[in-house]
């Protein structure tokens, strides 16, 4: 069964997926705070990390409720749509971004470069804002441009099929590096607000994972061009 069709089986699927990713992010935040807290004998961040824990509990509870709503509202009499229908290929542009593919790719690389610069200059606010923008643009860039080179098919626009063995499970690396790069770019600001301390290691991890992500995406485009002499 098509993963894209399952997620989009009703209006709750997309929101549920976003909520799960948000919960995963906050869990990662708690792990970082807990690690920092255990480094001191007086455990200075215990109270704050329990507030984060309460937030995690609220998110998990909301996720459970939305899981139930999602599962009970799937129409078992209707077939789910496949990715080729959900992510229709458009040559002129995309309604969400209101730009064509070239502009989308230009935004992708521009945000990556600026993101690296904000990490080098250790700008917490810049990293936070650009991290959010980069993950948003990157998702659509992978779906509508880089993914087509992974599939080697210009009309195949899907964020899920690349997770399959037919594509060597490369999707797990693509989406994991994007998530980790975004996590370390964004997490620096809330950690600073909680601990009042800066940790430069987050900037380094952000650069590393975002670079791996961009390298993998670019590699498939370059490999296709060197093999066929044309772009899709």
Task: Provide a descriptive summary of the structure in words.
The protein is mainly alpha-helical and 232 residues long. The chain has two domains: 1-86; 88-232. The chain contains nine helices and no strands. The protein has helices spanning 3-7, 13-37, 46-72, 83-86, 101-120, 124-151, 170-186, 188-195, 201-228. The longest helix is centred in the middle third of the chain and has 28 residues, at 124-151. The radius of gyration is 20 Å and the shape is flat. The two termini are 27 Å apart.
Which keywords apply here?
232 residues, flat, mainly alpha
Order of helices and strands: HHHHHHHHH
State which percent range the strand residues make up.
Answer: under 5%
Indicate the percent of residues in helices: 55-70%
The number of E-state strands comes to 0
Q: Give a quick account of the main beta sheet: strands, pairing sense, barrel closure.
A: none
Number of domains: 2
- What's the N-to-C terminus distance? 27 Å
* Radius of gyration over C-alpha positions, nearest whole angstrom: 20 Å
Approximate shape: flat
Arithmetic mean pLDDT = 92
- Total DSSP helices: 9
Which secondary-structure class do the elements indicate?
A: mainly alpha
List low-pLDDT spans: none
Ordered list of secondary-structure elements with their pairings:
Blueprint: H1 3-7, H2 13-37, H3 46-72, H4 83-86, H5 101-120, H6 124-151, H7 170-186, H8 188-195, H9 201-228
Helix pairs in contact: 2-3, 5-6, 5-9, 6-7, 6-9, 7-9
What's a quick, concise take on this entry?
With 232 residues, the protein is mainly alpha-helical. The protein has helices spanning 3-7, 13-37, 46-72, 83-86, 101-120, 124-151, 170-186, 188-195, 201-228.
């Amino acid at each position: 069964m098509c993963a894209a069709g399952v997620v989009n089986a009703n209006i709750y699927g997309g929101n549920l997926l976003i909520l799960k990713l948000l919960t995963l992010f906050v869990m990662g935040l708690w792990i970082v705070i807990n690690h920092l807290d255990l480094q001191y004998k007086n455990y200075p961040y215990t109270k704050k990390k329990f507030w984060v824990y309460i937030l995690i509990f609220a998110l998990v509870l909301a996720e459970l409720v939305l899981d139930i709503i999602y599962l009970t509202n799937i129409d078992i009499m209707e077939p789910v749509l496949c990715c080729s229908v959900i992510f229709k290929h458009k040559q002129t542009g995309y309604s969400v971004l209101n730009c064509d593919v070239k502009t989308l790719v230009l935004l992708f690389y521009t945000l990556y470069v600026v993101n690296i610069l904000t990490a080098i200059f250790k700008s917490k606010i810049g990293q936070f804002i650009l991290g959010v923008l980069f993950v948003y643009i990157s998702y659509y860039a992978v779906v509508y441009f880089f993914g087509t080179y992974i599939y080697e098919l210009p009309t195949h626009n899907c964020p899920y099929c690349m997770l399959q063995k037919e594509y060597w499970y490369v999707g797990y690396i693509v989406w994991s590096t994007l998530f980790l790069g975004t996590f370390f770019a964004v997490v620096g600001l809330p950690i600073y607000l909680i601990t009042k301390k800066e940790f430069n290691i987050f900037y380094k991890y952000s650069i590393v994972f975002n670079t791996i992500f961009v390298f993998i995406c670019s590699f498939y485009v370059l490999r296709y061009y060197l093999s066929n002499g044309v772009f899709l």
